[in-house]
Amino acid sequence: MKKIFLPLIVALAALTSCNNCLEGVGDSVEENRILADFDELVLDCSADVIIRQNLISEKNRVNVIAQENLMPMIKTNVKGGSLIIDIEGCVTATAKLEIEVFTNGLSRITADGSGDVSTKNALKGESLTISSDGSGDMEIKFRGEEMEVSSDGSGDLRLSGEAEDLSIDTDGSGDVDAFEFNANDVEVTADGSGNVNITAKKSLEVTLSGSGNVSYKGNPQEIQQSNHGSGNIKNVD
């Protein structure tokens, strides 16, 4: 008898948990929040985030677009120089849920949730590290000296801009499209099933041990490649 009722109890508990989600009511409103200084962004929720780099130095802030009864659940806290965006508890938005981030510059973006991340204008700085471990897509434009990308989730990444050095490490099913990102020296380590597209002008080093393909443009003068997987490394120029 216990074996019969146990699955039923688990199912009822799950249903009750879902029913406890706070559902959004009415149209979305905007709330402007002034924040302490930060140079890192961490997204761990389902909200979409748009990043805008300030044209002149001014206070960092976020503009939260959400239904009014959900607004207190959306947390935008700065800790140790990192802006952490999260949603407290379980919520169900029935209208627009979006967060605009206004920053003087970022050195790191980490996305572990299902929300999408994009840049409205090009981020500028010495270096930028991107870490994607969720299902959300990212579209990032950056101009600087160095960009480092780590993709372990199912979300796709699209990169544009330019840098001296570009490093890409993938271990998930998401694709990384960097054809529109011009870099002199590129290093790719691909262990997953996602495809990687890059443009390398001077040198290219590829280590492939997964099933995804690595396609490159730019006619690099120096090429080092090691293929221990089922994917292909190919020049598409």
Give a description of the structure:
- The protein has 2 domains: 28-106, no CATH class; 122-237, 3 Solenoid (Pectate Lyase C-like), CATH 2.160.20.
- Helices cover 8% and strands 56% of the residues.
- The chain is built from 1 helix and 19 strands.
- It has one helix at 2-19; strands at 22-23, 28-34, 40-43, 48-53, 61-67, 74-79, 82-87, 91-92, 98-103, 108-111, 117-119, 123-132, 138-151, 157-170, 176-190, 196-208, 214-217, 222-227, 233-235.
- The strands form 2 sheets. The protein has a 17-stranded mixed sheet that branches. A two-stranded parallel ribbon has the order 1-8.
- A hairpin with a 2-residue loop joins strand 6 (74-79) and strand 7 (82-87).
- The longest helix has 18 residues, at 2-19.
- The relative contact order is 0.11.
- The model is unreliable at 8-18 (pLDDT under 50).
List the helices and strands and how they pair.
Blueprint lengths: L1 H18 L2 E2 L4 E7 L5 E4 L4 E6 L7 E7 L6 E6 L2 E6 L3 E2 L5 E6 L4 E4 L5 E3 L3 E10 L5 E14 L5 E14 L5 E15 L5 E13 L5 E4 L4 E6 L5 E3 L2
Overall strand count: 19
pLDDT < 50 stretches? 8-18
Taking all residues together, what is the mean pLDDT?
93
Distance between the termini: 67 Å
Oligomeric state, counting identical vs distinct chains: single chain
Structural class, by secondary structure, is mainly beta
CATH architecture of the largest domain: 3 Solenoid
Rg: 21 Å
What pattern of helices and strands is seen along the backbone? HEEEEEEEEEEEEEEEEEEE
CATH class of the largest domain: Mainly Beta
Number of helices: 1
Main beta-sheet annotation = 17 strands, mixed
Question: What share of the residues lie within helices?
Answer: under 10%
CATH topology of the largest domain: Pectate Lyase C-like
